[in-house]
Amino acid sequence: MGYVNDIAAFSASAERRAGAGAQVSDRGEEICRRLILARKLNHLDQREAAKTLGYSNSSQLSKIEAGQASVSREFIVRAAIAYGVSTDYLLGLSNEPERDPRTAEQVAVLRSVQGTVEQNVAAMVTVLLKNAGEVAPLRSHLESLTQRISQLQEAYDKVCRKNEAFQNDVLAGSILESAVTAAGDAACKAKQFVERRSMIADFRAKAATDDGSYPLFVLAQT
Length: 222
Known about the structure:
Number of domains: 2
Order of helices and strands: HHHHHHHHH
Shape: rod-shaped
Number of helices: 9
Structural class: mainly alpha
Distance between the termini: 66 Å
Largest sheet: none
Oligomer: single chain
Radius of gyration: 36 Å
């Protein structure tokens, strides 16, 4: 009878060990699943997430998410900070991912906005650079035109406006005066246009050599 009891005890112990092993396996799979969910919540692919977590490439993160590499406590803490979720969520101890209400969602929104801004800036730079060859001659012509009109106004002031005989004796002199005044107004607007184009050109040059950093989103990346 004692022999039978020993066998029964051994069988129960084996079952407990098997059950514990299954629980550990399930826990590991759940951690992997939640790491993937947290990454996707932040709209990050493995390459982007690996960079955020301090890896030079995505191979180690890929192994961790696939359950092919061990997960240390330090990694769980880093992942929780990077993804804006709680460590309890990553460990499967809580179904609430947020460390604080809406934190993870806000981080995801900021990253999404950052991507949109970067895409728009890149599109603007592409268009501006494409048209740079056409804008430069136009700017030169407009500057020359405004300069010529300024000279015309100065000459008109000296010869006509300061000459009373012109005002009184020249037929339709007022028409010429109006035309010169209108030309001056047009030249002023053209000059303002050139100045605006210069500002855009400066922005284009700065954006083309930018390092891609946007201070607004620094907090979202930490």
